[in-house]
Amino acid sequence: MHILHVVGARPNFMKAAPVLHALGKRTAVKQTLVHTGQHYDANMSDVFFSQLEIPAPDVNLGVGSGSHARQTAEIMTGFERIVLERKPDVVLVYGDVNSTVAAALVCAKLGIRVGHVEAGLRSFDWSMPEEINRVVTDRLADFLFTPSDDGDVNLKHEGVPAEKIYRVGNVMIDSLVRLLPAARRCPKNGFPERYALVTLHRPSNVDNSETLKSVLESLLEINEDLDVVFPVHPRTRQRITEFALKVEKLHLSEPLPYIEFLALQSRAAVVITDSGGIQEETTYLGIPCITLRDNTERPVTVSLGTNVIVGQDRDKLSSELSKIVAGKAKKGTIPPLWDGHAGERIADVLQSLPFLN
Ligand code: UD1
C-alpha cells in the first residue's frame, strides 16, 4: 500500500506527524511525503519537521506565497506531475489550507483516492477561505476522518454517505500528547510569570488597518494588568509594519517552534487567539481560551472545552478577561477520542480497506 501525504502550511505538520508515525510502524506500507512549500520560512516549517520527527519531504514543490488563485494553481500543476510519477494508492490531505484543497482536486480529477484528515468541520462562514477549502475538500474526498461528532453530523447533512465517514479523533492532539513532556521541561527564561498568550493571523483580524489597530489597542489595555506575550505570524508582522501600528509595550517575538509554543500555552493564564488549532490545544490543556472570531468550526471547544467566542467585541473580551483574572474561568473537559491515538486509528482504517491490501 502506497500512501502519499500532502502538507504545506504550519498547522498541517502537527496533523500529519502522527499519521506518518503510525503508518511507519506497519509493514508493507510505503509512504511518500510532499511539501507544497506554501509555508517556507524556517521558523514556519523546518523547525516543525525536526521537533515532530517528520522525515524530510520526498518532494518540495516550493510554491511559496501568492494570491489564492495563483498559490492553488501552482500547487495543482506541480502536484499533478508528482502524482502521475509516484502513482500512490491513497493521498492523504490535512486540515483546511490551500494546499489541502489543491491536492484533493488534482486527485479527484485523476481518479486517485483521497483521504481528508480533519473532515467535517464547518464555521458556516463562507467569507473564510478555509471554509471554502473544507467544504470543497470534503466533497472530493473518498475517506473522511473526523475529529468530533459535529463533523459527522455536518457531513451527513451534506449528503456524504455514512460509510465514507470515520470518526478517529483529533490528530493534532496526538502531537500535543507526544510532545507535552518535552514542553514541560522547557526553561521559563525570559517570559513573565503570569501572562496572556496571543496569536493573530486571520485575514479578518489583520488585513484591515482599523480592525488590526482596534485589536492591538485591546491588547495594550490587557497589558496593563497581565503581560501580553505575542509570537507574530509573518502575515501579521507585515500588516503591523505596513499600517505603522504601535506594539512596543507588548512582548513580541518571531513565530515559535512547536515545543516552545506548547510550553507557553500550557503555562499561560489565558490564550487569546484567532487560530483553529489553538482552540483545541487549550481545551485539551484546560487553559482558558478567548477566540477573536465571530464563529468557530470547532464547536466542541465551546460546548465541552475552555473556549469562549468574543468576535471583535471589546467589551466582551474585557469581561471574559476579568472573569479569568478573578479565578472564575470557564472549566472544560476533553472531548471524546482526543486521546493521542487518532493517527493509529487512521492507520487501522487504511489497513482494513480491502482494495489496498
Ligand atoms: C495559512 C492558511 C491558514 C492557516 C495558516 C497557519 C490558507 C488559505 N490559509 O494562512 O488557514 O491557519 O496558514 O499559519 O491556506 N509568509 C511568510 N513566510 C511563510 C509563509 C507565509 O512570510 O513561511 C507570509 C507571506 O507573505 C504570505 C503571508 O505570510 O503572503 C500569508 O501566507 P499564506 O500561506 O498565504 O497564508 P497564511 O496567512 O499563512
Please provide a written account of the structure.
The chain has 357 residues and is of the alpha/beta class. It has two domains: 2-170 and 338-356, Glycogen Phosphorylase B (Rossmann fold, 3-Layer(aba) Sandwich); 181-325, Rossmann fold (3-Layer(aba) Sandwich). The protein has 15 helices and 13 strands. Helix 6 (149-157) links the parallel strand 6 and strand 7 (165-167). Helix 1 (10-24) packs across helix 7 (171-184), helix 1 crosses helix 15 (342-352) and helix 7 packs across helix 11 (258-267). The mean pLDDT is 96. It binds uridine-diphosphate-N-acetylglucosamine. Residues 9-11, 38-41, 44, 65, 96-98, 129-130, 201, 233-235, 238 line the site of uridine-diphosphate-N-acetylglucosamine (UD1). Uridine-diphosphate-N-acetylglucosamine is lined by residues 9-11, 38-41, 44, 65, 96-98, 129-130, 201, 233-235, 238.
List keywords for this structure.
alpha/beta; 7-stranded parallel β-sheet; globular; Rossmann fold; 357 residues; 15 helices; binds uridine-diphosphate-N-acetylglucosamine
How large a portion of the residues is in β-strands, by DSSP E?
A: 15-25%
Principal-axes shape call: globular
Strand order of the largest sheet: 3-2-1-4-5-6-7
Major pleated sheet: 7 strands, parallel
Domains counted in the coordinates: how many? Answer: 2
Helicity level: 40-55%
| Count of separate DSSP helical elements | 15
Helix and strand element order: EHEHEHEHEHEHEHEHHEHEHEHEHEHH
Distance between the termini: 7 Å
What is the CATH level 1 assignment of the largest domain? Answer: Alpha Beta
| CATH homologous superfamily placement of the largest domain | Glycogen Phosphorylase B
CATH topology of the largest domain: Rossmann fold
Low-confidence stretches are none
* Ligand species: uridine-diphosphate-N-acetylglucosamine
